[in-house]
Amino acid sequence: MTSKAGPFRRIPLREVIRIAAWIPVGIFFTRNVYSLAHITGVSMQPTFNPNLSTSPLHHDVVLLERWSIRMHQYCRGDVVTLWSPQNPDLLTTKRVVAFEGDLVTPLPPSAPTPIRIPPGHAWVEGDSHYDSLDSNTYGPIPLGLINSRVTYILWPFTRFRPVVNGLGKAKGRVRRFTGEVI
Amino acid sequence: MSFSRLPRLLRIPLPTLIRTVQIVAVYHLFTTDIASIRPCGGFSMLPTLSHDGDWVLISPLPYRSVFRSSSSSSARGPRRGDLVVSINPMKPNETVCKRVIGIQGDIIEVEPRRGRESIWMAEEDDELGNGRVILRDVDSEGRPLRSRRKGEGQWVKIPKGHVWLQGDNISNSTDSRMYGPVPVGIITGKVLARVHPNFTWFSDPVQSV
Hints:
Largest sheet of chain B: 8 strands, antiparallel
CATH topology of the largest domain in chain B: Umud Fragment, subunit A
Number of helices of chain B: 2
Protein name (chain A): Mitochondrial inner membrane protease subunit 2
Structural class of chain A: alpha+beta
Distance between the termini of chain A: 76 Å
Protein name (chain B): Mitochondrial inner membrane protease subunit
Membrane topology (chain A): Single-pass membrane protein
Number of strands of chain B: 12
Structural class of chain B: alpha+beta
Strand content of chain B: 25-35%
Strand content of chain A: 25-35%
Active site (chain B): 44, 98
CATH topology of chain A: Umud Fragment, subunit A
CATH superfamily of the largest domain in chain B: Umud Fragment, subunit A
Order of helices and strands of chain A: HHEEHEEEEEHEEEE
Number of domains of chain A: 1
Order of helices and strands of chain B: HEEEEEEEEEHEEE
Largest sheet of chain A: 8 strands, antiparallel
Oligomer: heterodimer
CATH architecture of chain A: Ribbon
CATH class of the largest domain in chain B: Mainly Beta
Subcellular location (chain A): Mitochondrion inner membrane
Radius of gyration of chain A: 21 Å
């Protein structure tokens, strides 16, 4: 056997297989438990990317929690990621404002007549008042599009904090199916 | 590792545990990304699929961007006539199997079946005493015998990124006529073949006229 110099010759096949066997486990973890993502848009200002206009190359890095979506443990006010209903290849970040049975008064460009959210759907909105393509444009979305819950801002480190449950711009516009207005 | 405090059956050696986790992960990756075989029941897809759960081969690969031809925008995502599996828009824990009737930009009639019913009625005898029986769809005052179905004559344009899904058995199917156009994002795969009773590939049913 000719032994050529070089670092890759020395790794035995057995070792490669032993490491490669962990790759599917890693993929399973990032898809179903936790994963990281960076946020590029302005639709969730001021929660994410508050300074995007002054430093356009800085994107927030966030921690996505996926198992709570599998268990359906998320509530109104949580920030979630979902596949855009208009573009199945685009992952977007929005705040869940209302669930099925709630009555929502949409903002422009929709007409301001209250909409009852159909079963299995949610109303999602970006926090930004200006640059958000959300349910006010495309209407209620099926819960099946929701893919993870955003729990922490990890980077930049100065803004490291949990992403809190909040109202966004929904104050006074949602009547829950129980009758209370938030 | 000492698992000696556990009951005897639960004393699984660590390497076996690790191997099991790895195999389960590979299985999960394969079924979600490459292909899976699942039963698909219900009356909505008769006569293509039987109501007592035919086993079908489902794959998400035809809709992955790598395998799509990027030549035309209509080639992206499901095509008309495809049999697809989608998350139920009304119940996120369930999946449904339907046929794609229209893609983005198409204009679809919500209820294609005509709602009016006709029945055989006896006409009054004429002077010669000959009675006859004719098919009528209005009563003696000219009112239709049955009202229009909901959605009949109502046309919708399918928005960007959505498709229109319908069961093949349109008289017994909860589909886009009920919940509207469905975003492509909740479609999990294409049904390629029936596996269990008599294996058959599902071919493209759409013919250009």
